[in-house]
């Protein structure tokens, strides 16, 4: 029975008698919403035992009470007696907890003043045992389960072992320092040399904590710290690494530590770029610094972006911005010095020599400059400032692009997003780097020889090109016409012009000429009348790719819509002005009409398009059910976009696919052929494929001329250029 006065509070509280195994009784007053676990917690923690943790349990009326149940749910009466005892709860990876605790204790004991080093257990042996335990746990699970290893390493962090070991390493006693170094270096080769790599791919959180535990002044020049930092870079660049493997390490902690490492690599790269003029950097060190720079900054980016979404600006974020600004400043200074070594613009008429011997010495840091620019391009902090820098140094940027070969084209591909800042020579160089080089001389494959009958120009050329293998097309082409003795580059150039002009002749119905510019062509939607039209579209694609590879002007120009489709870019209303002037004018009028007129349905337009196919009128819905949807002022933009898509893209999709299949025959499988167009605009493609539309620039012609059998100083060559200047 409840005592007097207890009835008033009985609905809100209960008095419980907790009796321990030693018969001692503790009186606790609990609310009805309190759980059994919260009541037992008032008695204190159970503690740890071998193989697990000791956890309190409560028994009432012969049954164990669920720890998550509330006093009210269990209906415990006033003065209910609960018998309390301990139960051993197994702890996951108990051996790991024990070993981690032993390592931390041994390290603290070794660091204690006055304690002989032999009194502490061998730290290296203990760490090796810990890593063996992680691998054993992995084997017990399965060969593909990496979870237990990550949990072991999390225990190593939770016990604070990295910090204790680094503290011992930084002691003044050489023997203690060596003992700690041997233990730490276990994580530089955590797996047996002959065994499968199990632990290494997951050590980044531990390695990062090791690096972060070093005192600021102790990092520079320390070989162990340098080795740990290099191993972090190695692990983060492993294909098996994912950001989820950071485990329970707070993302802010990861970002702060990664920013510090990224800043160190940035300083090394800045020094390397600045020292390029003085030739102070060692090639091996520069390569290592650059590799670490790329790894740390690419790994840092997602961590910072994640925190930027929901964290206000912090001091570490400000430090990152200052580092990015310092990187940009180093590149800007480098470009300024580079332009000081370039010939003046007045000498630009001379032929460009992109050989390494003709460039200033600083191009030895070419890869570092491009790596820094690529990283700056990825950060909004300095993106605008970087574009301003590129725009302020156009000659340096152009020279940088021209000094790169095809082996570097992928690493600088990002700059195609800023093609508006590049001149034509740079844009063309980036595009041509996507094509394989023609192999000449010893070791080159035999030339692909063709004997063409002028009367059967297209059929003969089709047979040689359409049925050739990619390897044959990547060899040197040799063309001769029947009953003619002439061979060589001039004949090859004539053959390219004749075949391309025949393919793009509107009478062949493959392509149609733009009404207002008869030299520009787009795919003819009615080409289906020719049963071989798809095979000839693939042939045309091969011919265009070959003309570009051999740097031959085909004498044809693509319509803007055809170029944009090949480049994978969207087509807008303004883009179809030359292709279909009538459709362009009609769409413009619809957009300019008063909204009330459009909404009155005076145009009687629905989402359909009428077309003529083989003499018959057909109605094509722009989307399912489009014939029942009226065009209004709100949806007219959508109507025009769908109309353009169907009229220009959908109606020639199949032909374009075959043309593209032929075009990409010249590209390596691992290089997307659409990247060829990434750095180009339609005007650039005009100059590369069709040649100049205006008068010939003799100076440019002379600058791009190669001499075979002659030299530029030969008397006949001088006569030739003198006559050319007078034409």
From TrEMBL:
Ranges where the HECT domain occurs: 469-727
Gene Ontology molecular function, alphabetical: ubiquitin protein ligase activity
Signal sequence region: none
E.C. code: 2.3.2.26
EC class name: transferase
Pathway in which the depicted protein is active: Protein modification; protein ubiquitination
Domain of life the protein comes from: Eukaryota
Keyword Transferase part of the UniProt annotation: yes
A GO biological process held by the record: ubiquitin-dependent protein catabolic process
GO CC terms in record: cytoplasm
The reaction(s) this protein catalyses: S-ubiquitinyl-[E2 ubiquitin-conjugating enzyme]-L-cysteine + [acceptor protein]-L-lysine = [E2 ubiquitin-conjugating enzyme]-L-cysteine + N(6)-ubiquitinyl-[acceptor protein]-L-lysine
Name of this protein: HECT-type E3 ubiquitin transferase
């Amino acid at each position: 029975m409840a005592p007097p006065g207890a009835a008033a509070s009985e609905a809100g509280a209960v008095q419980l008698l907790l009796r321990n195994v030693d018969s001692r009784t503790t009186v606790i007053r609990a609310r009805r919403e309190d759980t059994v676990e919260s009541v037992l917690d008032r008695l204190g923690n159970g503690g740890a035992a071998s193989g697990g943790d000791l956890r309190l349990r409560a028994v009432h009326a012969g049954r164990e009470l669920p720890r998550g149940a509330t006093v009210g749910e269990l209906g415990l009466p006033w003065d209910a007696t609960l018998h309390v005892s301990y139960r051993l709860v197994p702890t996951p990876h108990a051996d790991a907890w024990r070993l981690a605790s032993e390592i931390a204790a041994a390290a603290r004991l070794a660091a204690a003043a006055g304690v002989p080093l032999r009194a502490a257990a061998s730290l290296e042996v203990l760490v090796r045992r810990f890593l063996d335990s992680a691998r054993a746990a992995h084997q017990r699970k399965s060969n593909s389960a990496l979870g237990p290893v990550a949990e072991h390493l999390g225990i190593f962090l939770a016990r604070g072992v990295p910090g204790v070991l680094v503290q011992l390493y930084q002691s003044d006693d050489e023997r203690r320092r060596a003992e700690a170094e041997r233990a730490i270096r276990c994580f530089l080769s955590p797996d047996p040399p002959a065994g499968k790599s199990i632990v290494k791919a997951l050590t980044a959180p531990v390695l990062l904590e090791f690096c972060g535990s070093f005192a600021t002044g102790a990092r520079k020049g320390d070989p162990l710290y340098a080795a740990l930092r290099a191993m972090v870079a190695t692990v983060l660049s492993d294909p098996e690494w994912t950001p989820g493997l950071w485990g329970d390490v707070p993302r802010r902690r990861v970002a702060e530590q990664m920013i510090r490492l990224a800043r160190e690599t940035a300083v090394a790269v800045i020094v390397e770029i600045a020292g390029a003029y003085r030739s102070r950097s060692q090639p091996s060190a520069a390569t290592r610094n650059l590799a670490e720079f790329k790894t740390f900054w690419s790994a840092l980016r997602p961590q910072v972006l994640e925190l930027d979404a929901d964290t206000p600006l912090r001091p570490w974020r400000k430090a990152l911005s200052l580092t990015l600004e310092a990187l940009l400043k180093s590149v800007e200074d480098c470009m300024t010095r580079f332009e000081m070594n370039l010939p003046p613009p007045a000498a630009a008429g001379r032929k460009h020599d992109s050989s390494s011997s003709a460039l200033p010495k600083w191009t030895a840091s070419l890869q570092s400059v491009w790596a820094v620019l690529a990283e700056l391009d990825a950060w909004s902090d300095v993106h605008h400032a970087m574009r301003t820098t590129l725009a302020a140094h156009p000659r340096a940027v152009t020279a940088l692009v021209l000094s790169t070969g095809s082996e570097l084209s992928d690493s600088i591909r990002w700059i195609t997003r800023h093609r508006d800042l590049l001149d034509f020579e740079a844009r063309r160089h980036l595009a041509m780097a996507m094509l394989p080089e023609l192999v000449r001389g010893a070791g080159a494959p035999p030339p692909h020889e063709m004997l063409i009958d002028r009367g059967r120009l297209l059929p003969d050329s089709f047979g040689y090109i359409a049925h050739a293998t990619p390897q044959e097309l990547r060899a040197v082409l040799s063309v001769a016409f029947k009953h003619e003795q002439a061979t060589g580059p001039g004949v090859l150039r004539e053959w390219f012009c004749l075949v391309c002009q025949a393919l793009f002749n509107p009478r062949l119905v493959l392509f149609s000429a733009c009404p207002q510019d008869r030299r520009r062509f787009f795919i003819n939607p009615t080409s289906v009348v020719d049963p071989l039209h798809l095979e000839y579209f693939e042939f045309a694609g091969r011919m265009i790719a070959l003309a570009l590879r051999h740097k031959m002007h085909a004498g044809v120009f693509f319509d803007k819509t055809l170029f944009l489709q090949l480049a994978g870019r969207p087509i807008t209303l303004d883009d179809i002005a030359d292709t279909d002037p009538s459709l362009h004018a009609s769409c413009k009028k619809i957009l300019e009409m008063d909204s009330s007129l459009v909404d009155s349905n005076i145009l009687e337009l629905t989402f359909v398009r009428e077309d003529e196919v083989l003499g018959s009128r057909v109605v094509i819905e722009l989307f399912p059910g489009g014939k029942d949807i009226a065009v209004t002022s709100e949806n007219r933009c959508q109507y025009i976009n769908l109309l353009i898509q169907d009229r220009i893209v959908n109606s020639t999709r199949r032909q374009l696919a075959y043309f593209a299949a032929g075009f990409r025959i010249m590209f390596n499988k691992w290089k997307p052929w659409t990247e060829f167009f990434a750095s180009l605009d339609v005007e650039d493609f005009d100059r590369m494929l069709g040649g100049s539309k205006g008068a010939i620039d003799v100076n440019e012609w002379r600058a791009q001329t190669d001499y075979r059998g002659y030299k530029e100083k030969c008397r006949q060559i001088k006569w030739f250029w003198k006559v050319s200047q007078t034409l």
